[in-house]
Amino acid sequence: MTTNGLAGLPAVYLTLVSLGFFAVAGLLNAVETALERLSKATAQDLVDDERRGAEIVLAQVTDRAHTDYSVRSVRLVLQTLATIFLTLVIAAAGWRWWLVALVALGLNWLLLMLFVAVLPRQVSARWPGGTMLALQGLTSFTVKLNDLFAPLAGVVRRLKPEGPQTEAEARYEMADDLREMADQVGEAELFAEEDRQMLRSVFELGQTLVREVMLPRTDMITISEDESLSKALKLFVRSGFSRLPVTGEDADDIRGLVFFKDCARRVLGDPEEAQTPVSAAMRRAHFVPDNMYADDLMRQMQRDSFHMALAVDEWGGIAGLVTLEDLLEEVVGELRDEHDHAEGEPVQLSEDEWEVPARFSVDDLGELFDLELPDEDAATVGGLVASEVNKVPLPGTRIEVKGLEIIAGQTVGRRKQVATYLVRRQNAETERK
């Protein structure tokens, strides 16, 4: 490797300058970490304690975004210059090019990791207030230095202007900040892990769309507006729900909601009301777009006092329904009834009789009975029953397929979905009789 061009290189001075830049970059990285950890309230406490330089620190924390941008910009410049200078010093040694590259890479990486990334962040994370007080002079100088190049940054922004921040971007940015705050609180062991997870769930609710938590239309249990109140009561009892959407011509034509308590009150008050059509007892339904944010819907439910809404897709069709409980589950986790049990493995009741979970594979069910069952339309037992009856299965729903009798068991969970199915050979049922 030719080194004639580097013969007059002041190696000692460049080495000292490079190490100095690395050191200052490490201090600035400590300031960045302290800015992330130090709240405005804590900075105000420093002022109340009459700590020297506390008012300057409070001003820097108040204008956190500008301070952080200035410190980060100068730090990156110093890191770049330090790396270049140290690489030039190594190149002046006259070694082969690959050895120069290897030594420069290793030495720069070691200095960056040890004196810029690791040690400053560890110290600053432990004492953010003390770090900001000790380095408030350097921080102020860095902000002023960066402001000298503000006109140049303005020219760049004019050449390529940034578009206005969208609501989604603002929500993601805020949620990221809040999640980081929750993680910091958790690291300080001020909250239990489950409490920290709940805080994160609350923050993430502002990023969650209704379509992500709703019950899909294919799983909705509805009733026609022409059905009688007595049939509605039977459907309420079988499904376990207290509210049902009322349909008109098809599933996209939701006319309203019918409540169990309204039907029971009318029928018990006057038995002749049992044949009254459901349309006479239904209430107004609330419709929301399926791309609405979950936290906005929760506030709307609280303001307008309703617990169920129909989600509408971009084409105007019904995409599904969402309840207040769906939104609460996003925060606290799944809500189970005291009688609910987790899904288990298939249980053999007799030689030709099994109880299987709703999500049990159709192929696996066929293997239990040495049969080849149709799996083109559904991959699970629950899906197979739903495709055969062309509606959501309810307890007692019965189908026959390939010599097997499949009977829906009881519903579980807040959404009242069938959890298990009884499957037996039809000839076994005949012999039992």
Our measurement of the CA-to-CA distance between the termini, rounded to an integer number of angstroms, reads 96 Å
The total of helices stands at: 18
Output the strand order for the largest sheet: 8-9-14-11-10
Strand-pairing-aware structural class: alpha+beta
Largest sheet: 5 strands, antiparallel
Number of strands: 14
* Spans where pLDDT lies below 50 across 5 or more residues: none
Gross morphology: elongated
Question: Per DSSP, what share of the residues sits in E-state strands of 2 or more residues?
Answer: 5-15%
- The total tally of domains equals 4
Mean pLDDT: 79
Rg computed from alpha carbons, rounded to a whole number of angstroms? 34 Å
Helical amount: 40-55%
Question: How would you describe this protein?
Answer:
The protein has 4 domains: 4-159; 167-207; 211-332, CBS-domain (Roll); 347-432, 2-Layer Sandwich (Uridine Diphospho-n-acetylenolpyruvylglucosamine Reductase, domain 3). A 5-stranded antiparallel sheet has the order 8-9-14-11-10. A hairpin with a 2-residue loop joins strand 8 and strand 9. The mean pLDDT is 79. It is built from 18 helices and 14 strands. The longest helix has 30 residues, at 97-126. The protein is 54% helix and 13% strand. The chain is elongated and about 100 Å long. With 433 residues, it is an alpha+beta fold. It holds the Pfam family CBS. The chain crosses the membrane at residues 12-31, 74-92, 98-119. Keywords: CBS domain, Cell membrane, Membrane, Repeat, Transmembrane, Transmembrane helix.
